[in-house]
């Protein structure tokens, strides 16, 4: 952004949760207390509920399906434009981080192969109504724990399981990686992150600087696509070295997860209608995610 604006915009990066994490960042950006931030889609959903469609499971979890979806016309028209129309913030670009997992804490320690293994399990959920529905369908007892408190909650047994992607688990706050037991790769929901920006600040910029922000965002988005899988691979290997086991379910086991909680279940119809106005509109998003030979 600094290069694209020829030094007229200076970016001061404040990391490690110094200003807050998740929904706290979304609030700061919406109020204009900071100009931009990086948060998960789940933590954006309270402020922009339409994005929670991504957290309905088993239709857009893979890197390619997610990339197809967020770069589609239907996504721009029905999601990005709707978020911007609220007049508070805009989504600059999406981050490809891999699918969410089903992960037991080190204290719990179980390998979670089938949905029945989650029965009554204390399962940490982020600020997403869709994920709350998902994990209730799987028989867990959802527990709301802020992302910054997940490591401590795992250490004291307040939660027994959680769901971030491999990348999220390895890079989680407060040394979360040290509190993990076994990771199961069910490929349910993409653990998408987004860079958001305060709309008022962006619109007040001169045209040339506003264009520079958009140009830099588009370039960063395209460049990071090429590194996404390598980052996921490196995070997985690093977790294995820490003693965390990683389980790949069989075809039969994966089928069980989908049968019990997939997007086709009637329990999803009311929420699809709440988000989209018509549950049939979901098919447009599904088709966009699952198109073949997509080029970005």
Order of strands, main sheet, comes to 6-3-7-9
- So, the CATH homologous superfamily of the largest domain? Bacterial extracellular solute-binding protein, family 7
Under CATH, the topology of the largest domain can be stated as D-Maltodextrin-Binding Protein, domain 2
> Tally the helices: what do you get?
12
Radius of gyration (CA) equals 19 Å
Protein name: TRAP transporter substrate-binding protein DctP
Pfam family, one: DctP
Keywords: Signal, Transport
InterPro entries: DctP_fam, TRAP_DctP_sf
What does this molecule look like?
It holds the Pfam family DctP. This is TRAP transporter substrate-binding protein DctP. The protein is α/β, with parallel strands linked by helices and 296 residues long. The chain folds into two domains: 23-98 and 191-237, D-Maltodextrin-Binding Protein, domain 2, CATH 3.40.190.170; 102-189 and 242-277, Bacterial extracellular solute-binding protein, family 7 (D-Maltodextrin-Binding Protein, domain 2). It is 42% helix and 14% strand. The chain has helices at residues 23-31, 41-44, 63-70, 73-85, 129-137, 150-156, 166-171, 199-204, 207-241, 251-261, 269-276, 282-289, and strands spanning 36-40, 89-95, 102-105, 122-125, 141-144, 161-162, 180-184, 193-198, 245-247. The mean pLDDT is 94.
Pick out its properties:
single chain, 296 residues, alpha/beta, D-Maltodextrin-Binding Protein, domain 2, 2 domains, four-stranded mixed beta sheet, three-stranded antiparallel beta sheet, 12 helices, 42% helix, transport
């Amino acid at each position: 952004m600094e290069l694209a604006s020829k030094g007229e915009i200076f970016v001061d990066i404040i990391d490690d949760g110094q200003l807050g994490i998740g929904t706290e960042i979304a609030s700061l950006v919406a109020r204009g207390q900071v100009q931009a931030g990086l948060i998960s889609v789940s933590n954006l959903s309270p402020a922009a509920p339409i994005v929670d469609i991504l957290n309905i499971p088993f239709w857009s979890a893979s890197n390619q399906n997610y990339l197809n979806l967020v770069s589609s016309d239907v996504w721009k028209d029905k999601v990005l434009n709707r978020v911007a129309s609220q007049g508070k913030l805009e989504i600059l670009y999406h981050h490809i981080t891999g699918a969410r997992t089903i992960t037991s804490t080190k204290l719990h320690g179980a390998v979670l192969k089938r949905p029945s293994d989650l029965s009554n399990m204390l399962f940490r959920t982020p600020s997403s109504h869709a994920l709350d529905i998902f994990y209730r369908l799987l028989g867990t007892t959802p527990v709301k724990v802020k992302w910054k408190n997940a490591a401590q909650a795992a250490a004291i047994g307040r939660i027994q399981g959680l769901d971030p992607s491999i990348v999220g688990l390895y890079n989680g706050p407060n040394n979360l990686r040290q509190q993990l037991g076994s990771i199961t790769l069910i490929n349910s929901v993409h653990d998408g992150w987004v860079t958001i920006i305060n709309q008022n600040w962006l619109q007040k910029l001169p045209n040339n600087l506003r264009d520079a922000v958009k140009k830099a965002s588009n370039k960063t988005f395209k460049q990071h696509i090429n590194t996404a899988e390598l980052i996921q691979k490196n995070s997985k290997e690093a977790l294995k070295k820490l003693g965390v086991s990683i389980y790949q379910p069989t075809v039969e086991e994966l089928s069980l997860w989908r049968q019990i909680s997939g997007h086709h279940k009637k329990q999803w119809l009311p929420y699809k209608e709440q988000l989209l106005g018509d549950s049939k509109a979901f098919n447009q998003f599904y088709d966009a995610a699952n198109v073949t030979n997509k080029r970005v």
